[in-house]
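Hypothesis: this fold can be encoded by more than one sequence.
Test: take the structure tokens below, design a sequence, compare later.
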């Protein structure tokens, strides 16, 4: 094992160790509160009786504490995913660590749709970093490659904007000039999937076209 591979494995171990430590902190924190304040009230009447005595204790003995701990874990994993994607995805085990972070987000409340819909494409793309472009060179016709190679920044930006607008509509239910619920839902899905996911996928292809064009003549 060379030094570079050894360094990559150490990074992988650190990520795994951090994730395990994070899970341990969540479990111990929840167990500690249960030991100090008692278990979660079993009935609504018991919960409101505790709430009348102390709202803080009621929050800690209810599901609120668990939501806080899971939220901290989800935010921590999200930040780790951002850092890894920007600075380490190109390394030898970059795609593997990215996949583990996506899995951690799935387990710790980071959402289901994003991990199921977007994560596989991001992970598959990361696996092709620093690898030969032979397949893409054959799959993408030479006539459209130069044009396609210039599109990826614009499709990525427009896809992100479309996705964010779709999420805004999903949260607020507001579309200017539209009051019908079915029409609002149709606009939301169109922005998220056709605009967001569709343009993201086009960005992946355009990005590979850009990489192929960078290697032409080498």
């Amino acid at each position: 094992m060379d030094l570079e591979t050894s360094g990559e494995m150490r990074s992988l171990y650190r990520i795994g160790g951090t994730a395990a430590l994070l899970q341990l902190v969540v479990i111990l924190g929840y167990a500690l509160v249960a030991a100090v304040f008692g278990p979660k009230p079993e009935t609504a009447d018991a919960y409101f009786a505790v709430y009348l005595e102390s709202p803080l204790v009621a929050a800690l003995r209810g599901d609120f504490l668990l939501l806080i701990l899971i939220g901290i874990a989800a935010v921590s994993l999200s930040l780790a995913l951002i850092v890894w994607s920007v600075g380490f995805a190109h390394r030898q085990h970059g795609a593997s660590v990215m996949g583990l972070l996506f899995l951690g987000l799935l387990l710790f409340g980071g959402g289901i749709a994003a991990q199921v819909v977007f994560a596989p494409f991001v992970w598959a793309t990361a696996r092709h970093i620093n690898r030969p472009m032979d397949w893409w060179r054959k799959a993408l016709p030479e006539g459209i490659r130069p044009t396609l190679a210039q599109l990826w920044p614009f499709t990525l930006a427009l896809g992100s904007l479309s996705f964010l607008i779709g999420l805004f509509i999903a949260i607020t239910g507001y579309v200017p000039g539209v009051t019908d619920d079915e029409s609002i839902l149709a606009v939301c899905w169109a922005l998220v999937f056709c605009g967001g996911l569709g343009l993201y996928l086009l960005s992946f292809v355009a990005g590979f076209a850009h990489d192929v064009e960078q290697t032409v003549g080498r």
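The chain has a mean pLDDT of 78. The first helix runs from residue 3 to 37.
Hypothesis status: open.
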